[in-house]
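Input record (one chain):
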Amino acid sequence: MGADARNDIQWRKNWIARLTEAEQYYANYMKDPAPYSLVYSTDLRQDNINYQAETLDISGVTVYLILNNRSWFAIPANVINQIWQGLAATGRTKDWGLNWPAKSVSTGSAFVDQNGKFNVSVELLNDKKNVIGKQNVALSYRWWRGIYQDSGALVITPVEDSAINVTFSGVKADDITDRLNINIAGIDGVNAQTVAQNKRISIMPIDEYTKNDIVYKIGDKGPAGGIVFHDRGISINGWRYVEVAPKESEKKLSWYDAISYCQNLNIGGYTDWHLPDYSELNFMYQNLKTKGLGGFSDNWYWSSWELGANDSWRQRFSDGHQSNFSKSTTSSVRSVRAF
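The corresponding structure, as predicted from the sequence alone:
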């Protein structure tokens, strides 16, 4: 009896040591940000001329923080889950009081949501390489972890990448030359090139980042045979454009049926269709309907945006008016997909 108890106690100690090592591995792996690209646009334009001060604002710059490799998060999750499976196979977790990885053995909580930000220094240079404008912006990153209670498995999910618009205020008119350039001068107070090497951040203009993209224009035929109605200018999380399904797919349905219809649609072999949200619906109206594209009627069209248990949002394509209506009301449905 004593030998069995001592063996069981030692077995538990061995597992706690192994779990502690796993938690330390996770902490070391996750202490630095994932590999990102810092991408910036250069579509400069002038705003707000101050004739007395002889200055103006220059806008049109957007800085994007884009996750390069989502599978980066899968590596530590797979390690933790393999160890958890071994622990579960002992059949002793309940007796040992080990609810791992939901509850840490070495800290208060080893597997927590994490967030942070990069403080980025953005410069505007003239063709003499003089800095004539400078702004500091913060680009946030975050990931959250989930533990499935039925299996104990750890899942790490990065949050949508961030972007921020930059305006250089009060630029002296006399300093502006025919050619202006954007420069990422530093990140977190450190020279950008040094940070790029140490923190695995790739820094590039948007033209370089998108040079291998297939370029679509609003109104072009999309890969699934629909019509492109939105271009956000850069591919983030695997999509840049949104296309609307062809006119032949349009139906008049209640909101409940509209959700199911879009989810089960197969056009051109593509099955990733969805009911448009209210902003996508408005893009469809502004970029296609008002230009006579897409074969839209003047009817009301459903969006996926819910307003409580009974109502959802829809838009009238005769004039662009949006309003909430009962989900049981029949309205036109045109599904969309991002690519």
